[in-house]
Specification:
- A five-stranded parallel β-sheet has the order 4-5-6-7-8, with helices on both faces. Strands 1-2-3 form a three-stranded parallel β-sheet, sandwiched between helices.
- It is an alpha/beta fold.
- The radius of gyration is 17 Å and the shape is globular.
- It has a single domain, classed as TIM Barrel (Alpha-Beta Barrel).
- Helix 3 packs parallel to helix 4.
- The structure holds zinc ion.
């Protein structure tokens, strides 16, 4: 029985002191695949380094995170595009993370939308899945998606924390999954009720390490071994064994990343 952390940032500075220990702890807990979304150009070298260090376990992605979109986003996109299309060192398995975040700042909404659409266009060209980050911007992301959506587009709405109607809307995008993480374990998040009717074949597991650690480690630095807290909670909600959950979510992960 193995699991995949479909979204973690183990290459960031938060893991510089103990990255090998963090990795072996996760591997011991049966978390065997680590999907690594990029943030912006300043992280590319770190991302590559982590992949070199743990080649048999890691799957890198390339993209510009919405929180890194500012007045210089076109320069950033040029670097990301170059990474994706020349692919010297990357072998990127997806375009991510990309999306819209209006939680902190709405200043660059127009630029965020533009960056999102451009990167989705690259994913379509390269036949790669996209990993979407959306925070306080579901209406805007659905508008942007509907403008460029093609049925062959695949991807994940990562760290899904929306409501029932937003989950239903995502399920209409045929080849998209909901990435479920630590928030599922939070008391009073209400996410258990939202996730309960979502078919298991539309769900993948993630931690978003180092962020959003699940209960009972809420508030601490998150790490991929904590994926098991999410898996246990989801198995309980769905009334399936951990083995069954592993089987289905691994298949979903393979499907969305074309593995
Ligand atoms: Zn992330």
């Amino acid at each position: 029985m193995v699991f995949s952390d479909t979204h973690c940032h183990i290459y960031t500075e938060q893991f510089d002191q103990d990255r090998p220990e963090i990795m072996s702890r996760a591997i011991d807990m049966n978390v065997r695949r680590f999907f690594l979304p990029n943030i912006d150009s300043s992280y590319i070298q770190r991302l590559q380094q982590a992949v070199q260090e743990f080649p048999q376990y890691t799957y890198p992605m390339m993209g510009l995170h919405p929180c890194s979109v500012n007045q210089d986003y076109e320069k950033e996109l040029e670097i990301i595009e170059n990474q994706l299309f020349t692919n010297e060192s990357g072998n990127y398995i997806g375009v991510g993370e990309i999306g819209l975040d209006l939680y902190w700042d709405k200043t660059f909404l127009k630029e965020q939308i533009d960056a999102f659409k451009i990167q989705v266009g690259w994913a379509i060209k390269l036949d790669l899945p996209i990993v979407i980050h959306v925070r306080d911007a579901f209406d805007e992301i659905f508008d942007a998606m509907d403008a460029i959506y093609q049925p062959e587009l695949k991807g994940i709405f990562h760290c899904f924390t929306g409501d029932k109607s937003q989950a239903e809307k995502i399920l209409e995008y045929e080849n998209f999954k909901l990435g479920i993480g630590g928030v599922l374990t939070f008391k009073n998040s209400g996410l258990d009720e939202v996730v309960s009717p979502v078919p298991l074949d539309r769900i993948v597991l993630e931690t978003d390490s180092p962020y959003l650690a699940p209960h009972p480690n809420r508030g601490k630095r998150n790490e991929p071994s904590y994926l098991m807290f999410v898996a246990e909670k989801l198995a309980k909600i769905k009334g399936v064994s951990l083995e069954k959950l592993s089987e289905i979510t691994e298949q979903n992960t393979n499907e969305v990343f074309g593995l």
